[in-house]
């Protein structure tokens, strides 16, 4: 009876935790983890601190009362700023979504590689990096200073236009990229059964790309909702409720939560500072919810 003798394993194939390359590998992994933690830690600290400082100031009166006059502590509300933020951001979305989605459709479906499409893509990329205060100054010079909106200067509508400019790059780029992900076979199949190009885009391609487009819209709205500088130049501020007699409140100066944080945060009065933290809390929760919704839409699209 013969037995097969296996040679002993080579010592070089055994894992040696003290080998220089293994020590170096562990050190680099720890360093990478440390740098990742350092990148995320400021965000976590800021969010937790805002939630801690502002969470205690949230009461039902926040949404139903006006802010107190300087030096007074009652009423502790900022309902005008909450309504103003929703009004300005909502109107900006109504302006930016049709323009942004239409621009993305043109880039992805009509003129994919032409010189004009390349120029538009370059302009969108540049606009995405322009400081928001420049957009606010542009709308100030174009709309506020000229009083082109029915003779009015600072107004919620002017603020909406400034935020719409900031939302456009995100919506255009995500629409463009989302439509490119749609299978070419879907287009060919629709055209093959006699559908026109318009019907193919609106009935076949757009429904297939609705999730990435919706993701871009949500991210654009989240970015616009937290902007301050453009609104200082356009919507300004108001300590009162929106003037519904003035173009449904769109043609008069309007309070927004971001500008309220700027105005109240530097005041020497505790009630105003507390309201600034409350506004920061609401904005952070809104932006976190919008980003979570965007991630869910992206996952839904991938699945």
Concise overview:
It is built from eleven helices and no strands. It has 303 residues and is mostly helical. The radius of gyration is 27 Å and the shape is flat.
Account of the protein in words:
This protein is mainly alpha-helical. It has a single domain, classed as MetI-like (MetI-like fold, Orthogonal Bundle). Helix content is 68%, strand content 0%. Helix 2 runs antiparallel to helix 8 and helix 5 runs antiparallel to helix 8. The chain is flat. The mean pLDDT is 88.
List descriptors.
0% strand; MetI-like fold; mainly alpha; 11 helices; flat; 303 residues
State the end-to-end CA separation.
60 Å
**CATH fold topology:** MetI-like fold
Number of domains in the coordinates? 1
Beta-strand portion reads: under 5%
> What radius of gyration results from the CA coordinates?
27 Å
What's the helical proportion of residues?
A: 55-70%
Low-confidence stretches: none
What is the CATH class name?
A: Mainly Alpha
Major β-sheet annotation = none
Number of strands: 0
Structural class: mainly alpha
Order of helices and strands: HHHHHHHHHHH
- Averaging pLDDT over every residue, what do you get? 88
Shape by Cα distribution = flat
- The named CATH superfamily: MetI-like
